[in-house]
Amino acid sequence: MLADNLILLRGLRGLTQEQAAEIAGAVGVFAEVDESRIKTRHDQGWVSQVSDNLDQVFQWAKEYMEKKEPISIAYHGNIVDLLEYCLAKDTHIDLLSDQTSCHVPYDGGYCPQGLTFEQRTEMLDKDPEGFRKLVDKTLQHHYEMICKFHERGTYFFDYGNSFLKAVYDTGVKSICKNGENDLDGFIFPSYVEDILGPCLFDFGYGPFRWCCLSRNPEDLHKTDMAAAEYIKAHNRRYQDYDNYVWVRDAEKNKLVVGTQCRILYQDAMGRMNLALKFNEMVRNGEIGPVILGRDHHDTGGTDAPFRETSNIKDGSNIMAEMATQCYAGNAARGMSYIALHNGGGTGIGRAINGGFGMVLDGSERVDTILRMSMPWDTMVGVARRSWARNENAMTTVAEYNKMYEGQDHITMPYLADDALCEKVVKEYLD
Questions:
Q1: Does the pLDDT value for residue 14 go beyond 80?
Q2: Domains in the chain, start-ordered, CATH in brackets?
Q3: How far apart are CA 3 and CA 172, in angstroms?
Q4: Which of 13, 131, 183, 244 has the fewest CB atoms below 10 angstroms from its CB?
């Protein structure tokens, strides 16, 4: 349990971080200027308490931390006001991040301090230049406070929403690793660099999705149970147990909004085997047709230097080769539909995504396609990470090559001897 840990985030987007805080057993405070978003999340049950009073917000947080019980609290207000309050009250924050649309800060993705959501909307329309100046001022102040919390032991990460880039664009060079420009990255990591990359993406784990086309909740329940049973029987890594608990309790946690769909982190083999299981269930008449997909925020399929490929350190993080290859490979292998598109969670011009959809109709033809396409869709990303010398990805590729010996093979990178390289450079170039 993490209930003695305080997590602060900005923005209640279409994600479930507020509910995830409770599921993980933490105390989470989420700042949001748009009251309608807070109402939606509260009505869904993803937020437990709501207030625009910071004293009340942190009284709740203190109570639940003392009880070591999880809770998600929505603060209707600006994150900068919240951070100023925490600094003044000497409140320790364990985890801090930003979830807003900072790839478009001047188009409404970031709300300046001192403006309500309604005032922000009006100013954006009537005085865009003045709005831009206020955004820059708030971003700089926001960054200054993050630095202060970092000095106090707070772990801050960029979600990949371009918050750090937005701060840099205001003229703040101290945010850059090299102190001059963003070519070498920023002083704070994206969470792909520190967390998601080495712990999940490098092993091939990513958000595998399916939707029950019958729209029958019972079909979703059956696929949940099939997934839980599979993961429990093939518990290979600590990630598998986390995913087992997630899908086991998914129905209880009321994760469905509208269509009967599920999202579950799985690696290449897990995705393929679950897809084959679901297709078998369709074939046997246990459930209606199912369509598979995945998020753009995945091991493979997406090139985005601020997020998905931010820990690709071989210089290719700014190229769109993986998304294009993933898209083309899925087409050649027979996916039901494919897409190559700009944008995604990091904004137009900052990501290229190769997506897919695969309809499970119960046929043997679909089984064949799944065996060819599902490993490809995932391992193309693991290969990329392996070529960039990410240790866990290299291990995963080696295991894959052993498993598919004689059928498939991913080239491994040659690791340079750093000492030898330095010796040669010194000998011949100094």
A1: no
A2: 6-188 (3.40.50.10730), 202-403 (3.40.1770.10)
A3: 35
A4: 183
